[in-house]
Amino acid sequence: GAGPRGTPTLHNGRVYAFGATGILNALDAATGKLVWSRNVASETNTKTPFWGFSSSPLVIGDTVIVAASGNLVAYDAATGNQKWVGPKAGGSYSSPHLVTIGGVAQVLLMGEGRLISVAPADGKQIWEHQWSGGSIVQPALGSDGEVLIAGQENGTRSIEVGRGAGGWTVKERWTSNGLKPYFNDFVVHKGHAFGFDNRILSCIDLKDGQRKWKGGRYGNGQLVLLPDQDLLLVLSEEGEVALVGATPDQFAEVAKVPAIKGKTWNHPALVGDILLVRNGEEMAAFRLSRAN
Q1: pTM for the full model?
Q2: 185 burial class (0-12, 13-18, 19+ CB within 10 angstroms)?
Q3: Which of 130, 214, 225, 139 is nearest to 178 (CA)?
Q4: What pLDDT score does 291 carry?
């Protein structure tokens, strides 16, 4: 459908939004008034991808970073002046992702053929890892320098990133076909990864990538982790809300209710006791009962 693909970012009273045609706008959050605007697509000479630009802006201090289909670009958050252009990672629908590995803050980006890491200050490449498994889903951090990357083609891969006297090293730990997400995010919880294996939920062990269970047909839905309750809040492609246990023992659907109608590819959002769900047709808010 028409409209933006990336999530706007709220920071210091401003909203930063990157549209499907490659326009980055900074708006006053209180009034919606335009503060500045940049045509990232034309500035980087990047053609609009088939599904449109879909990067969610990443704000770090006084810098806002977007991915123009695999090409990282940074702007001054206050003025919109360009600060740097990073290396090209290949066509991508992924977003810049801030992590800290070995005590060093860095921005990761999934590209068409590789995962790259750059320095937030100047966009210089720190390390890279060749990977042809997909360029949509965000990478995730495990423990002790473990980075998880996933895609529909090659499944999920665990890599170990370290820094020694000779510089940065990147080693493959394992690759698993037990979790193959398309554009659906996966989450990491207590030594396991939970997400969509194509259109069915799956859980894999982060020690070796072995699948623990697979179940629940939610289509191309999305999910949010509720870590304090060991639950996954799932919004199905049909607009149903489900609670699924985020434990490796077995697939267990705790509850499921219809929420909205129509094709639903959006993430649910939970704020306090309010659950927000939406798609291209409607949006609904539900007040949830708090536990005693």
Answers
A1: 0.93
A2: middle
A3: 214
A4: 66
